[in-house]
Amino acid sequence: MRATTMHHITSGTPLTLKQCRVIQGIMRKGSEQSASAALNLSQSSVSRALAQAEHALGVSIFTRGWSGAELTADGEIVMATCDNLLNAIARVEQHLQQTADTALTLKNHLEWRHVAVVEAVSRLGSASIAAEVLGITQPAVSKTLKELENMVRQPLFSRLRHGLTPLPAAKSLAALYLRILPIAQSLSQALQSRPNELNGRLSVGMLSFSCQDIVPIAFASIFKQHPRVRLQAMQGPYHMLANALIQGEIDCFLGLLRTGPIHPDLIEIPLLHAQYALIARNDHPIHKEASSLKDLTDERWIVARHGTPIREYFETLFRSIDNKPPIQALEMLTFASSEDLVIHSDAIALLFYDDWNIQQLNPRLQQIPITLPKPDCMIGITLHRDHQSPIIKTFIEELETVIEAKITDSIPAE
C-alpha cells in the first residue's frame, strides 16, 4: 500500500525550511517575539519550530544574551547552513521573478516536499511515476505542484502525449533541490565532527572604573588559543550587571567587590588588591597647599555615581572629618574620562589603582600626598553559583596570569 505522507521525502534533512526561516529570523531580530512578527507567524509557532529544530539536531541553537537571543557555538554552524539554504532559494526566486507579473512567495513558504516533488516529476516525466517513487499518492503530488505554482506565479510543466515536460521554472526548482539537499544533509555530520575544543560564548560585564586594562589582555590570549570562543564585554552599573548575570545574559562581571553579592546565587572571587587614591593634575596647587582632608572640602570633585563603593568611600571620607560630602561633585562613568577631565580642569578625583597602575600613572597626573583612612579595596569577579563552565574557568586563569605579570612588574628590582 502506497504511503500517503510525505514525511520520508525529507529524511536526511534534519531541518525543515520553515525551521531555517525561524532560526534566521530569531538571529536577525534578536527574539522569538520579534521574529514571529517579521515572519507573520504566531510566537508559539516560532517557539515550537525552534524547539523541534534543537531536538532534531540534539543541540542548543540560541542562548539568552545581553541584547537578546545569541547563537551558541553549535548555533553558528546551524546558522551557516540555514543561510546557505535560504540564500540559494532567494537567488532562484529573484531569477524567476523576472518572468512573473506579481511578487513571488517562494522564500517565505517553500518546503522540502515542494522541491522534492518537482525534481522527481521533472526527472521522471510523470506525476504518477513520481508518486510511486516518492511513496505518496498522485493527488498529493498534484496538490504539491499546485502549491508551488502559486508560489512562483507561473506554470511548471507542459502536458504532452508522452508525459509532463518541465518548463524553465520547474528546471530551476529541480536544480535548486539537487544543490541544497547535500547542504542540509551534511549539517548533522558537521555538528558531530566539530573539533573537541573550547567553544561557546564568554560574555563579561565590567563595572565602571574597573579592570579596563586586564580584561582586553585576557581576551586576547583566549582569542589566540581558543578561536571558537565568542568574546563579549560590556560596561554597566552593579545592579544591572548582577541582574544580567542572574538571568544568564552575561557569564560574569568584574569590578570592585562589595561587602557581599546582592543575591544568594552569586559568588565573588577576589583577584587583585587596590587602593583608593586622590588624583589631581600634576601642576595643581593643591599638591603644595593641602596636608589633610579638611584642606580639600572646598575643591571640585570627580567621583563615581551614587551606589558604588567609590562613592560610598568618598562620602565616608568627609563624614570622618565631620563634614558633609561636597554636593558639587561631578559624576563620571569611566576611568579614562575621569582622568581626562582631571587633566583639563582644576577638579580632584577619587579613583582606585592597583600597585602597577599607580606606578604607570599618566605623567600629567599626580597623586595628592594625603594619607587616606582604610584605603584598601579589592577587585574581583562575580559569578553565578550554578552557571560556571570551562570557558569561565579558562577566563579566570587568564586573568590570574595577567594579574601575576602585573604584580611582578610592579615589584622594584633589588
Automatic annotation (TrEMBL):
Gene3D superfamilies tied to this protein: 3.40.190.290, Winged helix-like DNA-binding domain superfamily/Winged helix DNA-binding domain
Any one GO MF annotation of this record: transcription cis-regulatory region binding
Keyword annotations: DNA-binding, Transcription, Transcription regulation
Positions of the HTH lysR-type domain: 15-72, 110-167
Pfam families: HTH_1 (PF00126), LysR_substrate (PF03466)
Family: Belongs to the LysR transcriptional regulatory family.
Protein name, UniProt field: HTH lysR-type domain-containing protein
